[in-house]
């Protein structure tokens, strides 16, 4: 008997024993920095590639987190070929056997929870709590998708047909190219990988070059948990050389991508092309960017709305696809609201997240630092700066949490994904204008609406168009199987990761009937 799924609890760091354990994990990881990690294809380790690349700590870019063998097109092709050959066996493994691997992965992750989180503090600058949430979500994905694979393997309900025995089976598809982002470097990377594998597919995993060490560490856990060689193949390297190659390869059957709109649209286009000898249309599961909103009505619980606004805008430096980057506020409370958000934002602490007194860490890399500081310059033209605005690159990629008010819906700050600690606040006349402004985007990932008015809440639930809508709570923090996650329009294919339909995307349904 497998127990019902339950979300992994978050760690309470106010307990001295938990804080001490996390400090010990940070020290432990600190002693392991700078190691080298191979490419692994079919269990074979490739260490002596022509080139390598290093991953550095965004709080201190001189600190090398790890160095990786750098994949190229040739190795990427080999990985797809090995995955295709391994698929011929793995596709027959019973669902329970595949799920058991995930349950073992979850157990190991739980045992090494603080260690995995400590890697994220070092490699991408997550605070303790943000890293702990990321690891908990990775555990949840393993536990949840394991259970879902077992459920999908059960006999499926069909209307009986006279004189026939009928059945419907969800069968695996083939080689899956898994291409994750760096911002949930454990949870999203692990979630897409294990979803593909537990459904009976084989995987070529190309981690983000900003978070390859976390992925390498996770790959070691997969091996330790008994994932057979060749089921998941690990090929770090450039998006263009490795990513493009695994997307283009005619033996690739499906692609699971999470990342930016630009790269996602490129993959959609490439996936539509049919390569030599290819006998299928590639399936592309694409989860992309967001321009998420918090909408605050005149009758909202003021303090809740201020807290939800600030925490969803600046948690992990605003580098979440679900981050609140536009706050739309009813004119009756606008001035007071802007003041309260600005005051709360100014109090946020910024610095190396190894020190838990820092709520915010650095942005992930130099190009992100440049992009965010460019948007701050644009914001100064498009609105009025009310908090933050400063950035300091002397020790790491640090940008103060920044708030602009008076941003018009036509402004770039209102329309473009920034993916950093920059919040735009916009004034709305009334409820109707709040809804119209919230929906005035090409994206459609998350949104929050704050009000105490039941009739308006009912309307908002119906009319606000985004994949994950929250009422009277912040727009970040989706829980596996509590808030299946995925967006509309340019936010992607609405895959609903962490939901009961997710594994269907990694399978195809075969209907069989036998005359009796
Ligand atoms: P990105 O698009 O730059 O990179 C994502 C992945 O694609 C990386 O592994 C990268 O190496 C790879 N890649 C780059 N070029 C490629 C190519 N030509 N072919 C194949 N692969 C290629 O995104 P990022 O900066 O890593 O992540 C941030 C973005 O991800 C934001 O836009 C954010 O909103 C989005 N995101 C979306 C979700 C969601 O669920 N919708 C979740 C997290 C992040």
Topology:
Blueprint: H1 16-30, E1 35-37, E2 39-41, E3 44-46, E4 52-57, E5 60-69, H2 73-90, H3 95-111, H4 113-124, H5 128-152, E6 164-172, E7 175-179, H6 187-198, E8 202-205, H7 212-224, E9 232-234, H8 239-248, E10 252-258, H9 261-271, E11 283-287, E12 292-296, H10 302-314, E13 324-330, H11 334-346, H12 366-382, E14 384-387, E15 391-392, E16 398-399, E17 402-405, H13 412-415, E18 422-428, H14 431-439, E19 446-450, H15 454-463, E20 468-471, E21 507-515
In short:
The chain is built from 15 helices and 21 strands.
Q: What would you say this structure looks like, in words?
A:
The chain has 516 residues and is an alpha/beta fold. The protein has two domains: 31-52 and 65-288 and 494-515, Aldehyde Dehydrogenase, Chain A, domain 1 (3-Layer(aba) Sandwich); 292-481, Aldehyde Dehydrogenase, Chain A, domain 2. The chain contains 15 helices and 21 strands. It has helices at residues 16-30, 73-90, 95-111, 113-124, 128-152, 187-198, 212-224, 239-248, 261-271, 302-314, 334-346, 366-382, 412-415, 431-439, 454-463; strands at 35-37, 39-41, 44-46, 52-57, 60-69, 164-172, 175-179, 202-205, 232-234, 252-258, 283-287, 292-296, 324-330, 384-387, 391-392, 398-399, 402-405, 422-428, 446-450, 468-471, 507-515. The strands form six sheets. The chain has a seven-stranded mixed β-sheet, with helices on both faces. Strands 9-8-7-10-11 form a five-stranded parallel β-sheet, with helices on both faces. A three-stranded mixed β-sheet has the order 1-5-4, covered by helices on one side. A hairpin with a 5-residue loop joins strand 15 (391-392) and strand 16 (398-399). Helix 4 (113-124) crosses helix 5, helix 5 (128-152) runs parallel beside helix 6 (187-198) and helix 10 (302-314) crosses helix 11. The model has no long low-confidence stretch (mean pLDDT 98). Residues 179-184, 188, 206, 208-209, 239-240, 243-244, 247, 258-260, 263, 266-267, 287-290, 321, 417, 419, 445, 485, 487, 491-492 line the site of nicotinamide-adenine-dinucleotide (NAD).
